[in-house]
Specification:
With about 375 residues, this protein is an alpha/beta fold. The protein has one domain: TIM Barrel (Alpha-Beta Barrel). It has 14 helices and twelve strands. Helix 11 links the parallel strand 11 and strand 12. Helix 2 packs parallel to helix 4 and helix 5 runs parallel beside helix 8. The longest helix is centred in the middle third of the chain and has 20 residues. The two termini are about 25 Å apart. The mean pLDDT is about 95.
Length: about 375
């Protein structure tokens, strides 16, 4: 085993996170829950492959937080009530028995919602129609709807939705940690982005003002669960409907965003980019991961974005990440840690498993099952 592979497979313990290696499963929307948001056995079988395959940490797909406007997709799982939460309990217990550290990702879709079992219509920080078209492989059709601007009361309700869902994730479902989804164009990223946040109240304005909702949710969630498990947040520049988006303030924005989230008490920051090894902005050499490490030095940094090979995983760790999450690489190789340990070549990703819908396929489980 090379020194770099040894680094990838070495344990990590800091900020309440204790995992057997540095390679983790990224959150991936797979729309295979019940219509009313309960997890299913096929979901558990899907996640269990990663635990049996040796991954140290597994993050769930985005789980919606309330029965108002948080749900983004049909057949998305929820933690909006105790019944939904109890559906995860046996699953987390079995994952723990396999040695996996399991993180619940809590998500509010905001203006990008394209399927909500509980409400019609969408909301966002401002009445700005999202770019692009809805994603057909998540049951979307046509343009996104123009959202209604959220009231101050609705913003407070959304914050409490994250807090309540986090309590259920920890106290009922038994997750090891909570990740707040602040990335990829969903509600919290909509507040962070000037183009979609045109508010003139306390939630709008410069970068420092726009990141405040994200920081407040980190604080409120930590307070709500009594600091019992680590609380982190996922951050990106690109969005699911705008992959090339960049923070206009470049390095100055990175300093404000990462510094504010660190000051709010985030135990980890999950940085995702389309190609995480690339320079974060034009005219700089540092990646967004390196900037997160610079401006949040005491926080656990998790890197994501095209890091599917041993070389790229090791490079990200050397660039400042503590952990690396993989998506397509995990779908193709649910036993990726074992593949890396044995110096085998990872299997290539087959995009057909995401068509016509990006749901979990029985064929996917049988063809890539881990003994």
């Amino acid at each position: 085993m090379t020194d770099r592979t040894s680094l990838i497979l070495s344990p990590y313990e800091r900020n309440g996170i204790a995992v057997r290696n540095r390679v983790a499963v990224a959150p991936m929307t797979r729309i295979t829950a019940t219509e009313n948001g309960r997890p299913t056995q096929i979901m558990f079988d899907y996640y269990m492959r990663f635990a049996k395959g040796g991954f140290g940490l597994v993050t769930t797909e985005g789980i919606y937080t309330d029965k108002a406007f948080s749900q983004g997709y049909r057949f998305q799982p929820g933690l909006a009530d105790d019944d939904q939460a109890r559906g995860w309990t046996a699953f987390t217990g079995e994952m723990h028995a396999q040695g996996a550290y399991v993180v619940a990702q809590l998500m509010h879709a905001g203006a990008l919602s394209q399927g909500n079992f509980h409400r019609t219509g969408t909301v966002g920080p401002s009445a700005v129609r999202p770019k692009g078209k809805q994603m057909e492989f998540y049951f979307g059709q046509g343009l996104y709807a123009e959202p209604r601007q959220m009231t101050a009361i609705e913003i407070d309700d959304a914050v409490q939705g994250f807090v309540s869902a986090a309590r259920r994730a920890v106290n009922i479902a038994g997750f090891n940690a909570v990740e707040i989804h602040g990335a990829n164009g969903y509600l919290l990223d909509q507040f962070l982005t000037a183009e979609t946040n045109r508010r003139t109240d306390r939630w709008g304005g410069d970068t420092k003002a726009r990141v405040q909702l994200l920081a407040d949710i980190v604080k409120e969630v930590k307070l709500g669960i009594g600091n019992t498990v680590p609380v982190g947040i996922r951050i990106s520049q690109g969005k699911v409907n705008d992959f090339t988006a960049k923070w206009p303030g470049a390095r100055a924005d990175a300093e404000v965003i990462f510094g504010t989230l660190a000051a709010a008490g985030a135990d980890f920051i999950h940085v995702t980019e389309y190609e995480a090894w690339q320079p974060a902005f034009e005219g700089v050499t540092e990646s967004l991961v390196a900037l997160a490490r610079r401006y949040a030095p005491s926080v656990t940094i998790v890197a994501n974005g095209g890091l599917h090979t041993a070389e790229r995983i090791a490079n990200a760790l050397e660039d400042g990440a503590d952990l690396v999450t993989v998506g397509r690489g995990a779908l193709a190789n649910p036993d990726l840690p074992k593949v890396l340990e044995s110096k085998r070549e990872p299997r290539p990703f087959d995009s057909s498993i995401l068509q016509p819908l990006a749901s979990i396929k029985s064929a996917e489980l049988s063809m890539q099952a881990v003994a």
